[in-house]
Amino acid sequence: MNNNRFSVPSAELEKQTEYKEKVKTVLSSRFSLSFPKAFVHTYGCQGNVADSERIKGLLTEMGYEMTENLDEADLILYNTCAIREHAQDRVFGNVGALKKIKKDKPGLIIALCGCMMQQRYVADKIKESYRFVDLVFGTHVLYKLPEFIYRCLCTGERVFDITNSDGNIVEGLPVKRDGSFKAWVPIMYGCNNFCSYCIVPYVRGRERSRGFSVIVDEVKELVKKGYKEITLLGQNVNSYNKDLANEYRFPALLRAIDNIEGDFIIRFMTSHPRDCTKELLDTMADCKKVAKHLHLPVQSGNDRVLFEMNRHYDRKKYLSLIDYAYSLMPNLSITSDIIVGFPGETYEEFADTLSLVEYVNYTSLFTFIFSSRPGTKAAEMDDFVSREEKGKWFSELTGLQEKIAAKRTASMKGKTYRVLVEGKGRYDGYLSGRTEGNIIIEFPGAEDLIGSFCNVRVTEPKTWILIGEKAD
Ligand code: SAH
Ligand code: SF4
Ligand code: F3S
């Protein structure tokens, strides 16, 4: 389809297959009695989780066994996130702590990748001040992992590759999925929106969509293997195949996946309000397998702030989407992301966010205090409000949402919901699952229900979670 510009030449991929074999040979001669072990930790969003599943797939094919235990690892890899300063600080802290482990185990390979590394100033800092780190690679060269590992193993040199590009699409990488009944399926990569506060377009490259039939085939395969929940991923799924004819765009993709035979649920994220159409909402309402949950990040309820954020919609457009969505799906669960304290935001403007939150009646919110990201437009804007003041606004917002959520969950008492059971609950003998609306529900039940759908009646709604009992 339209992906040629982003395809990696097949000769390059064949080269990596050769490297994979070479690494395997080196490792099997160095580790004759046991398998070499790799510890992979992921920060950030589900897009990163999906990348890590490919990293683990490649490592497994090279002969590594995965471990959850840092101390027994022969390779430690952190897949990092750059979205907020706090996220980066945590990574620097955790990487610093690896220095001692490396000292005690000189053969250990320490690798860092992901969005944070795609920023030159970060890679430079690692190069100069974290000399025990062996390998740093950015988001556009993940598929070259076999070559990088080979060079680390055989030359002993430090390897840095943060090649910048518009990005690529590499199909056919092995995937070692974390779960056996929930799967992440990226449908597009990168972002073209350049919201003024956001680092993602700089570290993930231009928006590009995977092929329609490649995605449908992947989901078919997952359903055949028994996966019960498929989450379609992208920074802005609504603009999937934006340049192509209607029959290949996101609503069509949802319909095609909904038509796949089998008992499973479809989720997607994230939807950008700019590209969220009535057609998409109609499709959600029509498709039985699509969860009636919409994550539609608003960021702010004030038009001036939305304009400065470069979001390309206003309060009116957002609320008209919400009204339309509720008119089609009265029980729809809507969630959002909100940034508090964008540069220049006044309390009066923030109050517009509060009133919007009240109007929409969200199930839950992801709330963030603005974090200045070097290289973005917002980082250059004047910011007059103190951190302390922003903290107060933040608490006001979370306090309001808590009341809304409590009211929403209270209204669920006595009702029965279909739940995908995900694991053990917090109390002995309890299981934990999620409703279609993405609310956690815990109820007594046998562990063999994990990974299957189950009807659960709500007996005791708490603010953020529900307690229930199995119903027929
Ligand atoms: N593509 C998604 C968002 C991905 S990032 C979308 O546009 O909706 C997830 C969330 O992190 C964003 O929705 C935003 O609320 C928050 N975020 C991004 N950059 C931020 C920053 N610089 N400071 C604070 N929050 C930020
Ligand atoms: Fe960032 Fe905006 Fe792109 Fe979302 S749509 S990833 S917030 S630039
Ligand atoms: Fe973070 Fe990169 Fe995702 S910056 S939120 S891991 S796209």
Secondary structure topology:
Layout: H1 10-30, E1 37-42, H2 46-61, E2 65-66, E3 75-80, H3 85-96, H4 98-104, E4 109-114, H5 120-129, E5 135-137, H6 145-155, E6 159-161, E7 182-186, E8 188-189, H7 200-204, E9 208-209, H8 212-224, E10 229-233, H9 250-258, E11 265-269, H10 278-286, E12 293-295, H11 303-308, H12 315-328, E13 333-340, H13 347-360, E14 364-369, H14 387-410, E15 416-424, E16 430-435, E17 440-444, E18 453-461, E19 465-470
Parallel strand pairs: 1-2, 1-3, 3-4, 4-5, 5-6, 7-10, 10-11, 12-13, 13-14, 17-19
Antiparallel strand pairs: 8-9, 15-16, 15-18, 16-17, 18-19
Bound molecules: S-adenosyl-L-homocysteine, iron/sulfur cluster and FE3-S4 cluster.
Iron/sulfur cluster binds at residues 191, 193-195, 198, 200-201, 235-236, 272.
